[in-house]
Amino acid sequence: MRAVWIALVFAVLSFAGTGASLAEERWQTLPQPAPMPPANESGYAKVNGIEMYYAIYGQGEPVLLIHGGLGHADIWSSQVAELSKTHKVIVADSRGHGRSTRNDKPFGYDLMASDYLALLDQLKIQKTALVGWSDGGIIGLDIAMNHPERLTKLYAQAANVTTDGVDPGVLTNKTFAAYIERSGEDYKRLSRTPDQYDAFVGQISHMWESQPSWTKEQLEKITVPTAIVAGDHDEAIKREHTEYMASVIPGAKLIILPNASHFAMLQDPAGYTKSVLDFIDAK
After folding, report:
1. Which of 91, 261, 279, 280 shows a CA-CA span of 20 to 30 A to 61?
2. Alpha helix stretches (DSSP H) within the chain
3. The pTM is what?
4. Mind listing the pLDDT tens digit for each residue in 215-226?
């Protein structure tokens, strides 16, 4: 079965520009992220044949923030501003996203996890907490399964572990349509290949056709302290799928964010950041 995501990206773009106003409920809005604060350090790391944009903020115990599909690191601006008061915060653009380049290698969550581990190696960060949203949460789960020694905590929001965890209703969702439209605009603004958005989407869509596809047995081997997180109105991930993930990952904490959707970090930045801190700083 072809992934819902592929149809979404290519079919919903025409709907996104219809000018229909979003409803007033917070979980149906898509606020613009605030400007990013000044970074302590930023640059490009050469990893796995690409140049990966990264930035570092603050000091303290490290926390790595990984954005979702089609997005970029700047979506975390509100979280960076607050987390960097007490933590060393690392953000990056995943391969092909934002300012990072891509090559001909087929996209895969294992490869993207390898990119982030190589970045941590170059930054000499042996172990970190990880906050991942959507694809970022899936990358975090991949690292937790295969390289648990690199993580102190995992906060995985709006992730899925099999393709049937995606809610088909996302195809007609106005908020998600607006996100895809905005992502295309951001790609043109940030990317070194601003005219290749369709090619990039086509390349990553091959991954979404079949990944992730983890078994219950694989998830049961996770030893990293994990929070499985979703907005109570997530447009893209089925609630029962989120609950399944939390039930099979040993000791996982299920967190449901109120009056929020797939885009909770934008809709309720203060509440989202508090949820992250409460989890990653808990002893």
Report:
1. 261
2. 4-11, 13-16, 77-83, 109-122, 135-146, 174-190, 197-210, 216-219, 239-248, 264-267, 269-280
3. 0.94
4. 999 999 999 999
